[in-house]
Design goal:
By secondary structure, the chain is mainly α. The chain starts with 8 loop residues before the first helix and ends in a 10-residue tail after the last helix.
């Protein structure tokens, strides 16, 4: 492996000629290997000055390597700049852009997890087993509520690249049709229920934010949310919860 400290001007010139002039992949890999410590050094500098303490150095290093490889592939020595100068800008840019997107994604993941936790707590509140209803039936009702929530969620928020388990049971087209149907049902819910569902699922608002918007308590919003899901379930099942025609 060629190390940067062993890469004198002549050796480096030959490697660039072999890669840029002849397209030799071996020369490209030698350049990448030689400049990897340089990328790690820049990653360490940015990591030391990071604003978010929870960030992992491995993330910085990964983005640095990506930026360095892009620099190796795009560098043009004829423009006069040294490779370190050119690569330094690309590496720093790759790290900053990558961490910005990573933080934004993490914020959305955290926000979605919080919203889902609120829904779960809402469905659990005041829940007493009905006479003759076993635990399995209670859990089934809870699962239905969570499934309804999934079908209502705003698809513009971040979603994991891992396939959702629920999609294993449905063709994607069928699932999209179910989501459209649920949204049509929302349109005919009573006003307060409709507002809570739209704010929470379509606009990503927490129960606290909805409470301030509607001038109600958070507890009341949680109650309306639970009642709205019950109505949605009844309508979808063909019950008498709401008078609708789809």
């Amino acid at each position: 492996m060629v190390k940067l400290k062993d890469l004198d001007e002549e050796v480096e010139r030959q490697l660039w000629q072999a890669w840029k002039g002849q397209g030799q992949q071996q020369a490209r890999q030698q350049l990448i290997d030689a400049y990897t410590p340089f990328a790690h050094m820049l990653a360490a500098k940015l990591y030391a000055g990071r604003q978010i303490a929870q960030s992992e150095f491995q993330d910085y290093r990964q983005y640095a390597i990506i930026g360095m490889i892009e620099a190796v592939d795009r560098y043009d020595a004829s423009r006069g700049a040294s490779f370190k100068t050119y690569a330094g800008h690309r590496i720093n840019g790759a790290i900053l852009n990558g961490m910005e997107k990573s933080c934004e994604k993490q914020q959305q993941i955290t926000a979605r997890a919080y919203l889902r936790q609120q829904r779960l707590e809402s469905m659990r509140e005041g829940r007493k087993p009905a006479p003759g209803k076993d635990l399995f039936a209670e859990l089934a009702d809870l699962a239905i509520g969570l499934a309804l929530g999934y079908m209502l969620e705003d698809s513009t928020m971040y979603q994991s690249q891992e396939p959702h388990q629920i999609e294993n049971f449905y063709d994607r087209h069928e699932l999209n049709e179910l989501k459209k149907m649920m949204r049509r049902i929302v349109d005919v819910l009573p006003e307060q229920a409709r507002s809570v569902i739209r704010h929470h699922y379509f606009q990503g608002m927490s129960f606290e934010e909805i409470a301030r918007t509607m001038d109600l308590s958070k507890g009341r919003i949680s109650q309306i949310h639970r009642q709205a899901l019950n109505l949605l379930q009844k309508v979808y099942a063909g019950g008498e919860g709401v008078n609708v025609s789809l």
